[in-house]
Specification:
Elements (H helix, E strand, L loop, with lengths): L3 E4 L2 E4 L4 E7 L6 E9 L6 E7 L4 E3 L7 E5 L5 E6 L8 E9 L5 E2 L3 E6 L1
Parallel strand pairs: 2-11
Antiparallel strand pairs: 1-3, 3-8, 4-5, 4-9, 5-6, 7-8, 9-10, 9-11
């Protein structure tokens, strides 16, 4: 089975930046979208950023203009660049990939904590 591994989380002050990475263990067949989600305890997991097959991107309104999703130079790797971080960005961030024929794949999450 494909494994996704996130990295790059940590503690940062408000206004700071972090870059999250997601790496897949192997090539994934018929990818439709790559994405980043986040989740706060007691709340529903929410979509943060999407990178589509045409390389078009979409973002949640709350992060638009601050976050950027992109492909990496390495195979099966993508990133979430997070700038101007706010305390409300504190969450566990998950990378995700969806395919035409199979279920979505999820990483195990990386904690991002933004202090005031």
């Amino acid at each position: 089975q494909v494994r996704l591994v996130e990295s790059g989380g940590g503690l940062v002050q408000a206004g700071g930046s972090l870059r999250l990475s997601c790496a897949a263990s192997e090539s994934i067949f018929d990818i439709t979208v790559m994405a980043w989600y986040r989740q706060v305890p007691g709340k529903q997991r929410e979509l943060v950023a999407v990178l589509g097959g045409t390389s078009l991107t979409n973002y949640a309104d709350s992060v638009k203009g601050r976050f950027t999703i992109s492909r990496g130079n390495a195979k099966n790797t993508w990133y979430l660049q997070m700038n101007s971080l706010k305390p409300e960005d504190t969450a566990v961030y998950y990378c995700n990939v969806e395919t035409l024929a199979g279920p979505p794949y999820w990483g195990q999450g990386t904690q991002v904590t933004v202090s005031s």
